Amino acid sequence: MKVRFFELAVGVFVLLGIGALFYLAVQVSNVTDYHDRDTYTVTGYFDNIGGLKTRAPVTVSGVRIGRVADIRYDPERFRAEVTLAIRSEHDYLPMDTQAAIHTAGLLGEQYIALEPGGDYETLQDGDELMFTQSALVLENLIGRFMTNMGSD
Amino acid sequence: MTDAIASLGRTTINALVVFGRAFVFLMRVLASLDIVIRRFGLTLAQVYSVGVRSLLIIIVSGLFVGMVLGYQGYITLVNFGAAEALGGVVALSLVRELGPVVTALLFAGRAGSALTAELGLMKTTEQLSAMEMMAVNPYRRIFAPRFVAGFLSMPLLAAIFSAVGVMGGYLVGVGLLGVDSGAYFSQMQSVTDWNEDVLSGVIKSIVFGFVVTWIAVFQGFNAQPTSEGISRATTQTVVVASLAVLGLDFILTGLMFGAG
Questions:
Q1: For B118-166, how does the pLDDT look when each residue is reduced to its tens digit (9 = 90+)?
Q2: A110-115 and A131-133 strand pairing
Q3: Which of A4, A103, A127, B42 could form a disulfide with B145 if both were Cys (CB 3.0 to 4.6 A apart)?
């Protein structure tokens, strides 16, 4: 009888521990978000990606549809090559979709905002985005503002 | 002058001897781990006394640490108009640092000291020698199950601590201070990463469990067989294990998050 109680208590303990891990996975870290298994990738070339990082969200009208899978520098085009992994169910994006790097809030994280164009053909796996818009670099803006002030 | 140098040398040699014995002890325990599978009941009983009976202190501490984090985080964040970021602050500090570290410290105090005292008394009353006389290997019968039990319990306890802490932060942040409930969790989910944050916390707690249990069991094994010796060994367990946890935490944090 005593052994049975041990076993029961230990079983409850292990279940609690695993339940806590599960809670951390689902509720705290939302593990499902990072395992978008069915995705297709498109690449975009940006002049300047600012502080964009891999895993950053990719959104359309603010709705998250994928993430940044890879960032590298293309030495032939002298531009940054950003690979976007977009969930397969979002297969309706036109060929002339524009990608822009935005910042969430003034100091927030950077993400990619897609703006669908009007083309009838849709983006397929491995396609390249035609239009990109670089990140706003605050220093450049301030610099331009200062030189404009000086010329007045 | 020579005396001072000689005593320094003696202290160093003694420390090295203890360290070497601890290592040999660990190897012998690891070599007799098959008992865990063969007689699982022994380990189960130890998981009960080490893990299950630490639950209360872990849950209560986790809840209060989470609630305090909720308060302090809110007070700081509201200055920047970023009270919504509270969920992320609470979850990250719990999952990455406080969960594993505080659990390990509590574990050393609650379970480690009990292990040392128990084993020290066994040694003092010559139960260990008696076992050897009866051809029962104390490494298999006594040490290995305790070691595995501590090693298994720590990550579970740390996970429970973090989960309860997140709920504590929720109670204070959302229930008391009026942070939006949806924002609390969505902010948490957007900053907390499974691999980078939760799993590295779990790895930390596994390492801490290993080290704390090793120190506790070895201190009991190595205790002077007197009542004073047991008391010294128990103190040593808590002090050494706590220092080891804090030192290792610094190293592990540097390895896991430093390079990022």
A1: 999 999 999 988 998 998 888 888 899 999 999 889 999 999 999 999 9
A2: unpaired
A3: B42
ipTM of the complex: 0.77
Candidates B44, B55, B166; nearest CB to A6: B44
Residue B2 in any domain: the answer is no
Domain coordinates in residue numbering, chain A: 2-31, 36-142
Per-residue tokens: B79: 């200055």
> From CA B154, how far away is CA B106, in angstroms rounded?
10
Chain A residues closer than 8 Å to B185 by CB: 27
Query: What residues of B are in contact with residue A7 (Cβ under 8 Å)?
Result: 44
Q: What distance lies between CA B34 and its chain's CA centroid?
A: 24
Q: Where are the alpha helices (DSSP H) in B32-112?
A: 34-38, 40-50, 55-77, 86-92, 99-107
Quick one: closest CA in A to B195, which residue?
A31
How would you list the strands of the sheet with A57-60, edge to edge? A39-46, A79-87, A63-74, A57-60, A110-115, A98-103, A131-133
Q: What residue of A is the nearest CA neighbor of B58? A: A17
Closest CA to B165 of B20, B65, B30: B65
Contact B85, B185 (CB under 8 A): no
Quick check: is B11 in a domain? Answer: no
Q: How many angstroms separate the CA of residue A6 from the nearest CA in chain B?
A: 6
Residues in chain B: 260
Number of domains in chain B: 1
Whether A23 contacts chain B with CB within 8 A: yes
Say if A120 is an interface residue toward chain B (CB within 8 Å): no
